[in-house]
TrEMBL record:
Residues 290-472 form the Alpha-L-arabinofuranosidase C-terminal domain. It catalyses: Hydrolysis of terminal non-reducing alpha-L-arabinofuranoside residues in alpha-L-arabinosides. Gene3D superfamilies: Glycosidases (3.20.20.80), Golgi alpha-mannosidase II (2.60.40.1180). It comes from the Bacteria. Transmembrane segments: none annotated. Belongs to the glycosyl hydrolase 51 family. Its EC number is 3.2.1.55. Pfam families: Alpha-L-AF_C (PF06964), ASD1_dom (PF22848). This is non-reducing end alpha-L-arabinofuranosidase.
Amino acid sequence: HTARVVIDPAFRIGEADRRLFGSFVEHMGRCVYGGIFEPGHPSADPLGLRQDVLELTRELGVSVVRYPGGNFVSGYRWEDGTGPVGDRPRRLDLAWKTIETNAFGLDEFMVWARAAGVEPMLAVNLGTRGVQEALDLLEYVNHPGGTSLSDRRRKHGAEQPYDVKLWCLGNELDGPWQVGHKTADEYGRLAAETARAMKLIDPSVSLIACGSSNRGMATFAAWEATVLEHTYEHVDYISAHTYYDPSDGDRASILASAVDMDAFIDEVVATADHVGAKLRNRKRLKISFDEWNVWYQSRLQHDLDRRGWVEAPALIEDDYTATDAVVVGDLLITLLRHADRVGVACQAQLVNVIAPIRTETGGRAWRQSIFHPFALTARHARGTVLRTEPVTPSHDTKRYGPVPSLSTVAVHDDETGALSVFAVNRGETPLSVELDLRAFPGLTTTEHLTLDGPPRRLDTAGRITVELAGASWNLIRSS
Ligand code: AHR
């Protein structure tokens, strides 16, 4: 079982944008309450921000964090979460059948984002709300001062505007589960008008129109086409979401999940470019892949059905396996391979809710298996992404038919000269991979990192052979 990969600095895809290593904090389950925020926790600061979670967030290497939803945002009144905490209203959150106390809101999130060293990415509510409320939020967040809303922000402690650049125009409005679900025409019109008006307040913002909730939606592709016909000239990104469910125990298929993500990206790009051509618009949109992960989805309905209205219930706190970590690593490889067209990506979510970081309320915080491929990729995928065309065996899967066993991408750090090759063996059989690095004569040492053992030293002499275990994630780093 052998494969071969030639790596050459001439095969440039694009920059490894830091924004590809984003995450997501939604008011859902214990992501905010008991996750990033828990007044009274031994590690909490005076505002209630858990320092143990902040430390793990920094270690994870997250760049952008999307907030406050998700399905939650489609019924959210952002101003509820601002001002004196004692005056904030308790509300019903219809998305997760939860009581929202609003003890944590926009201003607390901004303090948290600064402490975490991440770029905030905000979503406006286009489910139950519209243009005016989106404008009010943008004015509160980005306008310097001298108006009612910007002065309200200053009164709440933020003298300087937050200067948020990334804005999602609603969330998953193609989904019948969404509060305020819309047809593509209804949403497209609303998103276009919201975008146009938002750019009047702040032309420097980048706007993201909602694409499909997943590739399996009956409206997939038609939704993107219609929404973009309305919004193309006003937006910068179209979103994509996907979750891969290992519940049925079909390990061969779950290990091949990235094959689906890869095709999904190609199809969204083709659809967006088709609309661009039709509109004679030469601008090229990028994808904001702002929700992706492995998710044991079958458990959610069960969690929601068995209870009434409560505050911050534990929701979809999935325990991840070593196999799930390999899948997450391969999904990151796929996002990097599309670095020319995917400009933002957010793993969903950051803490407790299908997350790399887990916590006990009042107790410890820890890393799940999927933390490690994310942290290693975020740390080492710096510089120029290089296309690799592995010559690889393939194997059969129930969900996707025959799939290439080897998935790879290379990133060359132009400053340090280091070369990182990320590789996943999706098959169960060990794979012997010949890496042809002759186009990088300056490299002298190579290390092979995996998720389950100490790093191994390899000889670097133009061509090296690396043994990849079955179902494994690997980083081969040369300098
Ligand atoms: O991340 C969990 C949920 O999945 C989000 O709220 C929603 O946007 C998606 O369906």
